[in-house]
Design a protein that fits this description.
Blueprint (H helix, E strand, L loop, with lengths): L11 H4 L2 H18 L5 H40 L9 H14 L2 H16 L9 E2 L5 E2 L14
Antiparallel strand pairs: 1-2
Helix pairs in contact: 3-4, 3-5
Amino acid sequence: MPKMTDQRDFQFEDQVPNIVAQVAAQSVGQFIAAFDPSRDPKLWADLVDEELREGEEAVANLLKELADVLYVTTGLAMVSGDVDTNDIDRQRLLSIEGYYGQAFSASQIAAALLRVHQSNMSKLGDDGKPLRREDGKILKGPNYQPPYLRDLV
């Protein structure tokens, strides 16, 4: 298994569980052997930065989806009087909400909910009325603004 040779900044094995370090080293070693990639540290640093940006965006998207789930679940409860209907998989809902609750703090979730609400309110058409799909789902109007959540993650 390839060993990390540059120990200047940190001990990789001290930062993550040993099995993850082993899998990463073995996988990247195979990649390097197969592709003979650039040895330019600046390129690799740029790639790290690119992947971090993509990860931050993915986490922000995950937070947005949580806020959407909570928003429509609350809507379901308000229009039906209960979330425990036959129309949804309650166990799946609890599982998803539990996962998100571990990934984000209450303040992150609350801030995301407020921003998703503001975004949802921007779905109104120019006439101030919602645009609807045939089944009644409200669609994005011409003034729709997606929520910005990157600063919350």
